[in-house]
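Practice set, problem 2.
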Amino acid sequence: MHNSSANPPAPTAAASDVVAAVLAFIAQDGCSDADFDGLALRLFAYQYANNQPFKRFCQRRGATPRSVKRWSDIPAVPIDAFKELPLRCEPPAATDRVFMTSGTTRSEVKGRHFHPTLAVYDRSMIGNFAQRFMRGHGPMRMGILFPTETVLANSSLAHYLALAMEAFGTAESRYFMSPQGLDLPGLCEALSDAQQRGEPFALLGASYSFVHLIDELKRRGQSFRLPAGSRVLDTGGYKGQSRDLPLDTFYAELSALLGIERSHCINMYGMTELSTQFYDAGNASVPSVKSGPHWIRSRLVDPLTGREVAPAERGILVHCDLANFNSVTTILTEDVGLAADGGFLLLGRAEGAQAKGCSLAVEEFIRAAA
């Protein structure tokens, strides 16, 4: 989606400096708590000064650049706020890339995430993907089970998968999903070819696309034994696009039909409102522990109070993503999580009192920021 402004303004000096700082931080080999806090507070001050709805929300919370001392003090903006108000620091420009949510919960309203440059998003994705999915493997033949960016220009997942194929795929990599549906004959031919040649193959796409693949392969009575090192990446839930499968069944059937070890069936957890993704280390057992790179941190809160929950207690996930330089770094999701060694377990969507707490958080944001 492109803004209609005829003469896009150049990024301000402050914005250019912020982008440079975030890119340098991502390029580091890890960081200390003090390093993370330092950049988080710099971004908070920048967003407080330039993102007016966010500033009004923070003022209502009594949070200012003077009072906020660490990343966990930054007020968490409820994720549905991206549907209500434009959350951006830079003014709109014709060159902006705007990622929009799928609108599965409120189909008439879509959240919008504005990117005046994709340099940060792309650097975040590529560095993280190389470590967590490629795991040091060189270029690999890839099959994408999702439409192209041309078809879905406002989809962050379409851009993510295009980046994956461009940066890590061989020349034989291609899409097997179009508006007309799954190209099963073409995909089966590619899988058979990889199997015969003994070359690892990577299959990437939305979780619901894999359910369609499972159903079609079972209907045909067809399966593959892909070479060692082959892998699968699925992302997102089923979103009403396919039948629901329990996680253990989903990965067991994928592994059996493709001949890929479950340790190489990797789930990516991300969202339009973030610029960074979380991964697990494979799904030999579920639920799997999700974790992110050094430029994103998470905590678990009670959405009614905003306070962190006690250890070993379920809460709603709050993510502080330093790659979110132009919107807000800190987001209150609607996802239930549980702390685990090295990261967190993702346990589903908020229900009951937790869902009510998330809704109240959105109402509070609107009252404060509008």
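Problem 2, part (b): a different protein.
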Amino acid sequence: MSDVVDSDELLRRLQRARACAQDEARSWRERADGLGAGEPDPASEAVVRTLAYETVTRVLDEILTPGAHSDQG
């Protein structure tokens, strides 16, 4: 982990991480929606993972565009 990266590469990496988190949140949200009441544990896990990826996305949004999403709560 001693690679030195410039600001443009760091920005690209953050943007890729944000896109990945969005994709994962969408995927887990679809899984949660597809699971029924008869499957509470998998549905619960899917909801928790969705929230986790949505949180990561919000954090990366704030890093990439500070203050742009301050109205969300």
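Answer key, part (b): The chain has a mean pLDDT of 86. The two ends are 35 Å apart (CA to CA).
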